[in-house]
């Protein structure tokens, strides 16, 4: 509407005596000024100038149409439709596009039958009109909203807007008849579903709700099981298929998630949620061309309900289309219905990316009023105040959360295993930093999904960090993810060694199935392959001494490497060079000394011996013997990687 029509431009008036350029007072100049303001999303000012244009030339249909468009942009759909009907009824009945604009307004008001009636009138009046393809696409979307296939029979074009209500009533009656016929066709039973059918439908909805709750809590494996069960019962359940794609994605199964979304789009090419998710997945995979095509499709969508409208806006923002995202968000916030604080946050982020920092501050202030406890609005307002030109640092994210780095920068080492937790708290400098990180690991779905993704698809260092973090979670979801990693043929041996070790630390006692060298095997202990035909109690005493002595001062990976070092030393020494274990602590001290040096921790033989009540000479003797055993056969790389 506004901005889509040509505008007449007035001529500036110049006061040559004072060299003051006077702003023209004709309607065209007001309209031009309003369009520029509308382009900058300054809706209130744009409305003021459009009203002045209408006051100057009340009989001009173009100015009236621009005003109706600006009203619609601010969510005042009823006022917009009153003006549009006035245009076709009193000013210019030939402006058939007004019916298309009315249809959009009706749709946003969730008056879908009235919207479809207006579209039918538009298509009947102007079959080759400028919005013909958009009108047909919109009718399909309306059918989806009303869960009704098919289309109305063609309507006779009314002579003017006065016949609109009558046409709408007729079309609504036809819709009701069509619905009843479609529901009863071929069944021989009443259209109303039976009690049994209602009970089944209620059960499915309950399972959908349960799966969504689990997804929100980051319990993706459990949610996936429910969604897979729903799809077995109903393969055409598109919401279940779309949510299962998300669950796969968050668990790191990228290929499976994309396949699931393509299945959704094969059944419904216009499924907005699937398009949004697939666009983000394609960006994650770096497939620029596929991402661009999906963004172009998304940019054409105009969802009517708040939830899909917010989903689209959020997706466009994440994909860098901040202008389009801001337009959708502004419209959501202008409708007058209560908005979640997350909507205000996303509007602020979009405004920030567009350089509209004053507007961003206003949205974050509203966010702070609605949700003061989270501190999100306050955090970003402070970030805005501290910025030194350009975007704030860090750049605001569309995710409704404070970046973890901002909350506990000094607590990053809290990702370590539970064994190192006390040491981490001391080093963090903030007593609650490690506890806060652990809380986020267990409850924040974004953090959990990042870990599952890193576990499957990250580089070697990232996978090790994810394993350490998962050792803190210790719930069934984490254990299932780790079990799956043991069966993944793409994971290297060291990652599987550590995964097995973590599962044992988390209390998993049963035999674990592991894919190793193309074969599956069951493993009972803490380590995959010892290469030893026997396991003596004395050897286990050294392992126990390592776990007791190093606990709380070394992280999970270092603890694992210490145990693996001992097992590998025994393998290389067996059967003729295996030492006699007189005192397990002396060998544990030597092992800690070697591991500390390997990981860059300053330590002397005397310090290592003091921790285990053995002499420095004994530590040095055992350490030398172990190092010679490894030099004789291979490098340490074979032990740890």
From TrEMBL:
Residues 175-212, 413-435 are annotated as: Disordered. Residues 413-429 have a biased composition (Basic and acidic residues). Gene3D superfamilies: Tetratricopeptide repeat domain. Keywords: Repeat, TPR repeat. TPR repeats lie at residues 27-60. The keyword Protease does not apply. The keyword Transit peptide does not apply. This is Tetratricopeptide repeat protein. It comes from Paenibacillus dendritiformis C454.
